[in-house]
Amino acid sequence: MATAPRPRTSTREPEELGRRLAVWLDVRLPGARVTNVSVPGSNGMSSETLLFDIEHPDTPLRACALRLAADPAAYTVFPTYDMPRQHRVMSLVGKHTDVPVPRVQWLEADPGPLGAPFFVMARAEGRVPPDVMPYTYEGNWLHAATDAERAALQEESISLLARLHDQFPSKEAEFLLPDSEGTPLRRHVDAQRAYYAWVVGGLAPSPLIERAFARLEELWPQDEGPAVLNWGDARIGNVIYDGFTPVAVLDWEMAAYAPREVDLGWTVYLHRFFQDLTVGFGQPGLPDFLRREDLERRYAELTGHTPRDMEFHTLYAALRHGIVMLRIAYRQAHFGEVEVPADPDSLILHHATLAAMVQGTYW
Which of 253, 224, 275 is nearest to 79 (CA)? Predict the structure, then answer.
């Protein structure tokens, strides 16, 4: 996908984690055995996932997944990893909606047992649209599906977002607001500015990202719309499907209290990120799948809320993704995997798309 090697995803040893997990679990379920410990091949570069089974007659869970905060010594993608916050969000989503979120069980806020806070949840079985190589490339189950099957998956997936936004009581999500001033959208954007400042602290800034922030101000919505619980990383690559039906919605570390369009813009843009990469490498991708106009239309039909200011929100999604990409590139440089070029904008894989959005020529 790029000239740079894929960045390392972990500095931890799964076998050692499994041994330490067994010691921790024995306090909660004396006599329990931890078996079949594994790390999924799709493990991310942020929080990490460990899969395991529990053998015990009284356990509430048998097939488990453990979500572990990033190793603080491993040049983390984000400055903080609030596992109690994620645990609370997932618990509340399970309580208030019919969105299929995994049932969360134990929360461990003490970093002592595994080196960082973590929580344990039920493991769902199924398949996930791949990120590497992206599902828009040939050779994976979603690309090989029929048009009708992909249409069914698209319908189910946009329904997830609509139901989350409609069913979750907004007041219950206010604890996610950043500790700052202004509307939920203003606080969300200000938090991204702070994140960007952390990413480039002591390093070369990105003129493109700074232009994108300035362009956001020019496009700022006159009516921001109501704030709701945002999933945060709202994309099909964070859903486990049984066939083409969602059975588990994952990765809630970016959950927020913000306008609906923040989530919808992320869904639209993250698919375009993969589609644009695929076209750039000479394949057609999936041009009729997850199209912006189709997602906006169907979301409005399902919720009665017509998405607004989507040029702002898709630009904002591309900008946010650009900051993450810049941090990942600087992380690669930290581990000696790449050299930092003279132009830091070139570290952002989708810099041409982001520039076109800033100029108003992308859509």
Answer: 253
- Interatomic CA distance for residues 363 and 357, integer angstroms: 8
- Both structure tokens of 32: 């329990």
Nearest Cα neighbor of 95 from 4, 164, 188 is: 164
Is 233 noted as a catalytic residue in this protein? yes
Non-local CB neighbours of 315 within 8 Å, separated by 6+ positions: 212, 215, 216, 219, 354, 357, 358
- Active-site residue among 26, 223, 233, 288? 233
216: enclosing H helix or E strand: helix 207-219
How far apart (Å, rounded) are the C-alpha atoms in residues 71 and 313?
Answer: 31
The three-state DSSP-derived secondary structure of 287-356 is CCCCCHHHHHHHHHHHHCCCCCCHHHHHHHHHHHHHHHHHHHHHHHHHCCCCCCCCCHHHHCCCHHHHHH
Rounded Cα distance between 90 and 92, Å, is: 5
Helix ranges restricted to H, 75-137:
83-96
pLDDT tens digits, the chain, 363 residues: what are they? 343 444 455 557 888 999 999 999 999 999 999 999 998 854 445 789 999 999 998 877 799 999 999 988 889 999 999 999 999 999 999 999 999 999 999 999 999 999 999 999 999 999 999 999 999 999 999 999 999 999 999 999 999 999 999 999 999 999 999 999 999 999 999 999 999 999 999 999 999 999 999 999 999 999 999 999 999 999 999 999 999 999 999 999 999 999 999 999 999 999 999 999 999 999 999 999 999 999 999 999 999 999 999 999 999 999 999 999 999 999 999 999 988 899 999 999 999 999 999 999 999
